[in-house]
Amino acid sequence: MLGPFLLKYHHMFVGVAAAGAFILSRNGRAADYVGASADDLIGTLGRFAQQSDYRYFWFVDARSAEDAAKIEQAWLHRYRPTDNPSRSSVPHGTGWRCTTEGCAACALAGAAR
């Protein structure tokens, strides 16, 4: 994972449109939001830079959309961000399942779909 970097300068650190996962923060110390992009990490971060009050970000490139989703899910469990409306941005119907043993939040999110 690389960062923290100032979100307004995301284009200086994320070079190409590719899959990846990211953490956004208002203070540069705590994870407020965790997300992933299947194919355009730089574009996704750009939208957050323009439309949110997050100031900092961390990121990692991923080999595929599936890898980005796995990283996102792991970070959701590890950092427990306050601003995520649901446990994952993984689209319904992809067949992806949480691999964290006994994750009640993911079980509830799956039941609600």
CATH topology: GIY-YIG endonuclease
Calculate Rg over CA atoms: 14 Å
The average pLDDT value, as a whole number, equals 84
Counting copies of identical and different chains, the oligomeric state is single chain
Helicity, in percent?
Answer: 25-40%
How many domains would you count in the coordinates?
A: 1
Q: Which class do the helix and strand fractions yield?
A: alpha+beta
Strand neighbour order, sheet with most strands: 1-4-2-3
Number of helices: 4
List the secondary-structure elements in sequence, H or E: EHEEHEHH
What fraction strand? Answer: 15-25%
Main sheet makeup: 4 strands, antiparallel
Number of strands: 4
Q: What is the 3D form?
A: globular
Query: What is the CATH architecture term?
Result: 3-Layer(aba) Sandwich
Distance N terminus to C terminus? 31 Å
Text of the CATH class = Alpha Beta
CATH superfamily label:
GIY-YIG endonuclease
Regions with pLDDT < 50 over 5+ consecutive residues? Answer: none
